[in-house]
Amino acid sequence: MSLFKPLQDLPKEERKTIEGKSEHVHCLIIGSGPAGYTAAIYTARANLNPVMYEGLQPGGQLTTTTEVENFPGYPEGITGPVLMEDLKKQAQRFGTDIRWGVATDVDFSKRPFTVIIDEKTSITADAVIIATGATAKYLGLESEKKFMGSGVSACATCDGFFYRGQDVAVVGGGDTACEEALYLAGLAKKVYMIVRKNYLRASQIMQERVLSAPNIEVLFGHRTREVVGSQSVEGVILLNSRDEEVRIDVQGFFVAIGHQPNSDFAKKFLETDEVGYIKTVPGTSKTNIPGVFACGDVQDKTYRQAVTAAGSGCMAAIDTERFLAENK
Fold this sequence. Notes:
The protein contains 8 helices and 19 strands. It is of the alpha/beta class. It has 2 domains: 197 residues, FAD/NAD(P)-binding domain, CATH 3.50.50.60; 118 residues, 3-Layer(bba) Sandwich (FAD/NAD(P)-binding domain), CATH 3.50.50.60.
């Protein structure tokens, strides 16, 4: 059910109340991270006076990582939180108005567009850039939910410290899962990787690192049936390729099986794929609504890298600048 009704559909008195709280901006950026901050830098330098609402996780997913070694310009590497703080300061330096808040609903049926922040604040904007990223997926097991925060996690860099010297498991076979396993290998006594396929989907260099790590054991052809324990995680019941139960004793269970794009608030107006990634015109950040642009992981299901997110943020800013110039 929608949290927001177009202003014209509300009772007169309620409409007056909301309209009285409304604020108009020229360029609104929803979400932060490499895409949002880069879009902010470019739009601010173009004198578009951008206003950004950072979302639930200011700085995006990179704030949960440690060393970032593949972002250009940092030959010695840099931590994710520091990189995001640098981008934020750069956006602020050029005048971006950065605020705390979450977009909970939108009305893109006409310009200026309307965006509801935290279910109560109405913002109208001449152009909107969506950079809300994606959220980690879980397996959907009841036992997984039961131990959320008590041994189950989707962020090794956030919670790995609590399992120093213990045994842990990581679910997944892609680059993210390998990265999580390698990080945990530096803390935990033993790391099990639970992989449904008989191979890793990760890049070759990540595969080599995982397979050569002395305290990582990859369990190919296994899937998770249940997470077990009393007050916290004590083990995981797996099913092998012959549907036989296998138990491993672990104290931490880390899920690294992908992400869900944070696009629900705008789906009734924007075209998305079956997963929820916002569709954009190839080679641009343009959505099916002229004046609404999408960048970063909310529309990128292929690369999902910080540098490609930043690049798409630049594209969104330039597309926005051109749109506003053509539609004064």
